[in-house]
Amino acid sequence: MRTIFLVQKRMYSPRHRNRIHFLQVSLLMAAGGLLLYLTTLPIATEIGLLVHWMGALVLVTILVNRHLPDIKTGFKELVSLTIVALFTFGLYATSIYILEVWFTHTPRARFRTALVAAIVLTLFYPPLYRLIRRLTQRLLFRHQFNYNRIIKTYIQTVNNILLVEDLTSICLSFIEKNLNIRRGAFFLLKSQDKTHYHFTVFSNLTNDLPDSISLKKDTPLTRRLVDAGESISQYTLDVVPVYRQADEVGIETLKRMAFEQFIPIKRHNFLIAILAVGPFASGAPYTLEDIELLSTMAEQTAIALENARLFKNVRYNLEEISRINDLMDNIFASIQSGVITVDTDNKITLLNPAARRIFNVPPDIRTASSADDLMHHLRSTP
């Protein structure tokens, strides 16, 4: 049992910790049932045997079923239902008792009590029930997200960012702040060859992640992310052997990064990046609603990433053109031969110092001047 607690303490994944919780419960049930059985008391023996077999059944369930329900969530739901049930019982009992006392000495007391109780409970029970339910949910469970508001704010945040580095940093900061997620990263597809996808890693974490990662093509993992466009959890990669067998190096690299969920980012049916997110700060597992929210955010990120990459390409092309123009200007300025260039509009586009010196070109004739002025000067020059 001590070993189990030590392993659980080292686990960052809520799903792995949940599996260990089930193992602890099964062992406690088996041990407790055995102790009751050894008391030799008739009732305790029967109860102990039943509890022991239930513990064994839970253990078999752990071994057979890879995807177990969250034990903490189940316990909190039970507590929530118990609180609501006690509130309902208390409200009914108190209302009827007060009305019984109130109408004790009146004619047809039972009828009046029943009538007033029905009216009072019909009017006041539904809003009180919703209030108690909302309070217990807020007390027992993590903060419930307003998905529509988060998506709207996220779109407004990322729409006008045109630098890839700034975009990834702002997106990760938004996700960590608004979803209360501990860590995150983007794997941007840099290149691919016949056997691998090669990703560049962008993250707000300093010196904690590698700069790049490669994943094999045509494996269960890449088929799910690239072809099916479905997210996958690190827990699934750990407990389903076929993923590790197909790409042991890639899966081990992902495991060392300590992320919880991987969401593909696709545009025009092509993978452009992967969003990797860690566990919630609350320790709660990801629900289907959480994954749908992250997938929707990934779709918006795909548009922003495509715009940022287009802007990067345009900026690179402009820089290259400017660099080539500067290089040509330097070359023409340094050569000893006179060079004069004219465009299709009959405007001078280049008049290097050697040409100005050789032809004794006056200062008023310069780049962008009419070529006719230059020709007139040359004809009048002896």
Q: Count the E strands.
A: 8
Would you state the CATH class of the largest domain?
A: Alpha Beta
| CATH structural architecture of the largest domain | 2-Layer Sandwich
Q: Globular, elongated, flat, extended or rod-shaped: what is the shape?
A: elongated
| Beta-strand share of residues | 5-15%
Counting DSSP H or I runs of 4 or more residues, the number of helices is 14
Cross-sheet strand order for the largest sheet: 3-2-1-6-5-4
Decide which structural class fits the backbone: alpha+beta
The number of domains: 4
Q: Report how far apart the termini are.
A: 107 Å
The CATH homologous superfamily of the largest domain corresponds to GAF domain
CATH topology of the largest domain: Beta-Lactamase
What is the percent of helical residues? 55-70%
Rounded Rg: 36 Å
Could you give the order of the helices and strands? HHHHHHHEEEHEHHHEEHEEHH
Biggest sheet record: 6 strands, antiparallel
- The stretches of 5 or more residues where confidence is low (pLDDT under 50) are none
Mean pLDDT: 83
